[in-house]
Amino acid sequence: MTIHVLLIEDDELLVKRILNHFANTEFSIAVDPTGADALAIVKQRRVFSLAIIDIVLPERDGLQLAKELNTLTDIGVILLSSRDSQADRIAGLAQGADDYICKPVDLLELELRMRALYKRVAVNHQDDDSEEFIEYADFKLHPDNRTLITTAGVESRLTEAEHKVLICLIGNAGKATSREKISEEIGQPDWSPNDRTVDVLIGRLRKKLNDEKDQKRIVTVRGKGYMLSI
């Protein structure tokens, strides 16, 4: 089995290290150093399961590219960045990335995260034709391929983090779920009161649910967290 990966990175030394590391694995890595042709490459070849994108590129904004790939394809996205602040990580998640790795890149960590993300992507692709939905109030959610459909017929694909947040809220519908609990569900157990990752994900879910201000499906419970209304 070959797992096709598109590496969008202009650091020649890092590219060489990554190619050498994965040379004898099932990962087949194609390189686009500028990101200028990334969308065309993914759409034309239709074989890529993962994309690894440097945030700072010579011809593209890596965050914007991650957003476009997330919107137009089912590819799993890992961002690489020399910026390690919480704000930068949140910005990456806000654009639809599935994971975020800070430079200098530990190649073993990168490989482990690629394998974990690929498992999720592969399951989603295998189950795309399944008709099993979780139906709740005015929307339904396909738990395998992360497709969200509102009663208005608007369909959108959730990122892995968005999906985990919504599943958590559905499982606790009618009662407040703390930001700390939600953070644990998305694989970030070291939550702090200053961490806005959960709030960003909630905001993105509200947008995809078309959650109007006067009739919110996801309710903010002051001092306690968020609640999915019944």
In whole angstroms, the N-to-C terminal distance is 45 Å
Low-confidence stretches are none
- H/E order of the elements? EHEHEHEHEHEEEEHHHEE
Describe the strand arrangement of the main beta sheet, using strand numbers.
2-1-3-4-5
- Count of helical segments? 8
What shape does the CA trace take?
A: globular
Number of strands: 11
Task: Please indicate the percent range of residues in DSSP E strands (runs of 2 or more).
Answer: 15-25%
Helix content estimate: 25-40%
The radius of gyration is 18 Å
Task: Name the average pLDDT.
Answer: 84
Assign the structural class, choosing from mainly alpha, mainly beta, alpha/beta, alpha+beta, or little secondary structure: alpha/beta
Largest sheet: 5 strands, parallel
Tell me about this structure.
The chain has 230 residues and is of the alpha/beta class. It has helices spanning 12-21, 38-45, 62-72, 86-94, 107-126, 160-171, 179-185, 197-208, and strands at residues 3-8, 27-31, 48-54, 76-81, 99-102, 134-136, 139-142, 147-150, 155-157, 218-221, 225-228. The strands form 3 sheets. It has a 5-stranded parallel sheet with strand order 2-1-3-4-5, with helices on both faces. A 4-stranded antiparallel sheet has the order 6-7-8-9, with no helix packed on it. A two-stranded antiparallel ribbon has the order 10-11. Strand 8 (147-150) and strand 9 (155-157) form a beta hairpin. Helix 4 packs parallel to helix 8 and helix 6 crosses helix 8. The longest helix is centred in the middle third of the chain and has 20 residues, at 107-126. It is globular.
